[in-house]
Amino acid sequence: MDSESTTSTGHVSRKTVLRAAVAAGVAAPIALMGVPALARTLTDGGTPLDLTPECDDGDDLTLPQMEGPYFKPNSPLRSAMVDGPGTRLTVSGYVFGRACRPVSGVLLDFWQADVNGAYDNAGYTFRGHQFTGTDGSFKLSTIVPGLYPGRTRHIHVKVQAPGRPILTTQLYFPNEPRNNTDTIFDPRLLMTVRDAGGAREAAFDFVIDVPQNPGPTPTATTTTAPPGGTWAAGRAYAAGARVTYGGVGYVCLQAHTSITGWEPPNVPALWRVG
Ligand SMILES: [Fe+2]
To answer: Which of 3, 42, 76, 240 is the most exposed place for a label (fewest CB within 10 A)?
Structure first.
């Protein structure tokens, strides 16, 4: 796909430049800060910390982190979840597989605290899921989450490619005082964040365990005949919908349109046995 190869090429080019800049001990060029790029940070002394995994050899997958107590399934499908006051924030980036090719159709489910550091456990405020586009990109519009006791500032996310395991992790903000005292914080999960006229623009790229050696990016548009069940690709399932697949009954946890690779046994984020 043209858009895919263009994006991939441009992205690798940026990363190459950034890697050279870090190796030389200088900050990333300002001109590069407006585009989705790998998260990075420098200590006060200018010593580079570990970078978010560079997608060059497929070995450096984005780190998993604990889910925490506030995940809820069945978040709304939406890329904008500006549900309350706070500093506006966009988080954009790409999801790559092991061969650094973007992966389309990846489920990204975000949840975070409001400006006061509170999670909405009754409803779906500051919760939402979306899917990467054909170029593997995503963009979330939200606010900068507030702080709550014991943690530094963070955004939770679950990432799942069709038919692949769920990556549960958290994204962090540079230059937060509490980053140094939060035992869960990991600098490899820092976003790049810049000010943008009173708002913030953040970037982060995920590298997930999707085999690509080097072949076509997984696409999932064909339909298949399920093995003796009512589940089918290309259908809109609502939360609570029931299907059978391979002789087993499943309940839909999150509304979605099914695609090949998301057969119920493969996607525990979407279906549970029941
Ligand atoms: Fe949290």
So the answer is: 240
* pLDDT above 80 for 58: no
| pLDDT at 202 (0 to 100) | 98
For residue 56, the model assigns a pLDDT of 60
189 CA → ligand 1 middle, Å: 14
The CATH classification number of 34-41+49-207 equals: 2.60.130.10
Q: For the segment 215-250, what is each residue's pLDDT rounded down to a tens digit? A: 444 455 444 445 778 999 888 889 899 999 988 999
Ligand 1 is an ion; its neighbours by CB within 5 Å are 68
Distances (CA, A) of 11 to 15, 85, 129, 130, 181: 6, 33, 24, 22, 33
CATH architecture, range 220-274: Ribbon (2.10)
- Ligand 1 centroid to residue 249 C-alpha, Å: 33
Domain boundaries, the chain: 34-41+49-207, 220-274
